Amino acid sequence: MSIKCGTHNCVHNDNNGNCYAGVVSVRGIHALTTDETLCKSFADEGIREDAEFATEFNATHKKADVSNIKCSACRCKYNENLKCHADDVQINRVTASCDTFKQD
Length: 104
Known about the structure:
Blueprint: E1 2-5, E2 24-27, E3 38-39, H1 51-58, E4 69-71, E5 79-80, E6 83-84, E7 88-91
Parallel strand pairs: 1-7, 2-4
Antiparallel strand pairs: 2-3, 5-6
C-alpha cells in the first residue's frame, strides 16, 4: 500500500518517488478522468526556505502510504467514505494528478 510520486519538485517527495506528507489530499469531486484529479498536498520545493514550513515538514520523517490519503474523487472505484482503498497510488509527475483514478 504505497504512494509513488513522480513530481520531483514537490517538497514532500524525496526524488525517489517516496512521499513524506503527513496527509495526502487528492481532489476531484466531479472527476471522471485522471486529469480531473489533483494532489492538493503538492507544495513546490521553493517554499522549503520558509522557516515555518520547514519546521513543520521536518517533523514528518515517516513515509506516507495509501492510508494517509484523504480523497474527494467520489467517482473513483477506490474511494470509500473519502478514503483511498487502492493497493498502490501513483501521482503524475507533470500534473500532480492521481494516475490511479478509475471511474466507478
